[in-house]
Amino acid sequence: MSAKTYEVRTYGCQMNVHDSERLSGLLEDAGYERAPEGADGDADVVVFNTCAVRENADNRLYGNLGRLAPMKTKRPGMQIAVGGCLAQKDRDTIVKKAPWVDVVFGTHNIGKLPVLLERARVQEEAQVEIAESLEAFPSTLPTRRESAYAAWVSISVGCNNTCTFCIVPALRGKEKDRRTGDILAEIEALVGEGVSEITLLGQNVNAYGSDIGDREAFSKLLRACGKIDGLERVRFTSPHPRDFTDDVIAAMAETPNVMPQLHMPLQSGSDPVLKAMRRSYRQERFLGIIEKVRAAMPDAAISTDIIVGFPGETEEDFEQTMHVVREARFANAFTFQYSKRPGTPAATMEGQIPKEVVQSRYERLVALQEEISWEENKKQVGRTLELMVAEGEGRKDGTTHRLSGRAPDNRLVHFTKPDTEVRPGDVVTVEITYAAPHHLLAEGAALDVRPTRAGDAWQKRNTEAAAKPAGVMLGLPKIGVPAPLPAAAGSGCGCD
């Protein structure tokens, strides 16, 4: 008798992507096998890991659940589970609207999924279990990582901020830090498996240490990562300007394997709007951080999140945002038109901006950032860069006979395929010959190819998996190694 299959569909931020790796690990520990790529609901268990950030998040979920209802009728024993932020928020509503759902679980108890599925099967009724506080730190659970050569490492969960546009603190809870020793032990274990790049993950990653009252805990953690043999690249996302201190900048600049890349959410360049958002910094403070980072790391690529059309935003407020964009010269920006998040203070604020005004401002901002991104990328032409070869980054690689990789500053580079074998996780040295707004090209022959333990790990995984089904259905594009920032937001929630 063949094993039961599962499919996980993920929406929202990289927190959810990381949680989905844990959900996949839990299901495989329980004896399930991944459904083939493109299964599209044709699995014994379908899990939705949801996001509550967008205004239409619930419509998207219920639409997808509705499409699965006839499939479930035709497939005896099929089970559907809904977890994540929307499940934490809507709870019993999900089963009322979609009574064919078997399990609803929240952000704090993802480890219960296999037990809840079995209970639903035996009792033949839906199981709704929403924990109010964290039961187990996600990183203590089994995992099925999406990459053999790069990994997320969660250092904290939750958020202590009260931004008026964000519902995440209500759903993820107050910030809870993980013990430094546990974090470093996980990183060392991952490096032992062949991982060469890790991304430290937290809803407000640089507030790490608030649990123990150590304001320099995050910079100490970065420096400790620098002492781990075999760990070539360290990134983190997403920091908050309020907690971004000089010791963090120094640690980034002085720790060779911490990459010269920073995602620093701006949200707005207007002081009155920042105040209405309950953001604890102002324009001068934000630009001061950027200036210090550039002084310490001249080649650093800085990206951001911006919300256009927040309630009460005037044309003058918007021009202040454009001013910051011109001054900061972001490598790229994740820009969003404000949309009401049910349950947030901003949703009921006066001064909601007409859609056509928001659209016009949004288009002006995108045009400006596109121009800056292109100008900044052109500065890379002629540089020699070490790329970590990536998997699935270049959609046209097959037809152009190119491969793709990430520069230390996380810029995407497409390069000519070398004559020698190159695997994801290996390192290739190239010279940049052309720049576009969102990628670079290296059209000449590679200057060097360095096989790595990470490439060995990728090859081993793919050899072992050759005869097995593959593909957790993660509903987000991958934009990095691992995808550092889905096109959803900085931490994926637009709330950092």
TrEMBL record:
The record's free-text note on cofactor binding: Binds 2 [4Fe-4S] clusters. One cluster is coordinated with 3 cysteines and an exchangeable S-adenosyl-L-methionine.
Residue intervals of the MTTase N-terminal domain: 4-122
UniProt signal peptide: none
E.C. no: 2.8.4.3
Radical SAM core domain segment(s): 145-376
Catalytic activity: N(6)-dimethylallyladenosine(37) in tRNA + (sulfur carrier)-SH + AH2 + 2 S-adenosyl-L-methionine = 2-methylsulfanyl-N(6)-dimethylallyladenosine(37) in tRNA + (sulfur carrier)-H + 5'-deoxyadenosine + L-methionine + A + S-adenosyl-L-homocysteine + 2 H(+)
Keywords (A to Z) from UniProt: 4Fe-4S, Cytoplasm, Iron, Iron-sulfur, Metal-binding, S-adenosyl-L-methionine, Transferase, tRNA processing
Binding site for [4Fe-4S] cluster 2: 159, 163, 166
List of residues binding [4Fe-4S] cluster 1: 13, 51, 85
Principal subcellular localization: cytoplasm
Cofactor names: [4Fe-4S] cluster
Listed SMART domains: Elp3
Cited PROSITE patterns: MTTASE_N (PS51449), MTTASE_RADICAL (PS01278), RADICAL_SAM (PS51918), TRAM (PS50926)
Domain (TRAM) ranges: 378-446
Gene3D superfamilies attached to this UniProt entry: Methylthiotransferase, N-terminal domain (3.40.50.12160), tm_1862 like domain (3.80.30.20)
Cellular compartments annotated: Cytoplasm
Subunit structure: Monomer.
Similarity remark: Belongs to the methylthiotransferase family. MiaB subfamily.
Function per UniProt: Catalyzes the methylthiolation of N6-(dimethylallyl)adenosine (i(6)A), leading to the formation of 2-methylthio-N6-(dimethylallyl)adenosine (ms(2)i(6)A) at position 37 in tRNAs that read codons beginning with uridine.
Protein name: tRNA-2-methylthio-N(6)-dimethylallyladenosine synthase
Organism: Streptomyces alfalfae
